[in-house]
Description:
- The structure is a single chain.
- This protein is of the alpha/beta class.
- It has one domain (10-233): Flavodoxin domain (Rossmann fold).
- Helix content is 31%, strand content 12%.
- Strands 1, 2, 3, 4, 5 and 6 form a 6-stranded parallel β-sheet that branches.
- β3, α4 (115-124) and β4 form a beta-alpha-beta unit.
Amino acid sequence: MSARDAPRPRVHVVHAHSEADSFVTAMKNVIVAEFRDTGHQVTVSDLHAKNFNPVASPRDFLERSDASRLVYPLEQRHGYATGTLAADIHEEIEPVLAADLLVFTFPVYWFGAPAILKGWFDRVLLSGVCYGGKRVYGRGGLAGKRAFSAFSLGAKEGMFGADGIHGELVTGMMRHLFQGTMGYVGLDVVQPFGGYNVPYIAQDKREGLLDELRAVVRNLDDRPVLAVPDLDDFSEKLLPLHENPAVS
Ligand SMILES: Cc1cc2nc3c(=O)[nH]c(=O)nc-3n(C[C@H](O)[C@H](O)[C@H](O)COP(=O)(O)OP(=O)(O)OC[C@H]3O[C@@H](n4cnc5c(N)ncnc54)[C@H](O)[C@@H]3O)c2cc1C
């Protein structure tokens, strides 16, 4: 197969900002343009534009394996296997499964993702497909794919780090997202890009952040991937092996 015939890498962007002229939307536009210019196939799920429902509920299942009581992850498994998930969940999961790289663009709300994106994780990262049982981290259902996030913050850069008032940004404050969600389902989480203090800095500084982001995207393959627990260090029950050899 010649380089021209090789399948183009697929990038799927999940975007969480309501305003077309917001800084986060400008970050999303930079990312989409950069990937399109370099021959990637790019799809975008603009959660506000499609009025995505972020609330996990019994309405997510058109048919139930157990009608008496909802066990959400079990019904996710049944729903995917039988094609009876709500149509919007099907619409969101298929491009995720087709993608080589997932991109998330969002403003930080309360140390994490805004509700519309949090709900997307709840409803779309399906049990049995993206994770389940011992299929987590390196054995997660989305292993082999990468994730990259670009987000904006009100906080200043100096508020983070070992001595910062909020502690480490990526491995502390937002560990639940980068390890506990993206890493957990097996994604290789590329070091995210955070734009600090965005509402309060001058226009030229914000434009500088977009230039920085463009360069990051251009060189994404050289960017480090966050460490996640190595399952070989744990027992079949995912308990520590080395500290307590009696545990199996
Ligand atoms: C509920 C809530 C919780 C929050 N929690 C946190 C928190 O825990 N930690 C934290 O740090 N922050 C927090 N924030 C702040 C929040 O993260 C920031 O307000 C947000 O990240 C700013 O991004 P934005 O895209 O919404 O900016 P916008 O307000 O849309 O834009 C900021 C500025 O950028 C300008 N701009 C737009 N496009 C461009 C462009 N192409 N080039 C240059 N400038 C441009 C806009 O005109 C505007 O002046 C919170 C905010 C809310 C509402």
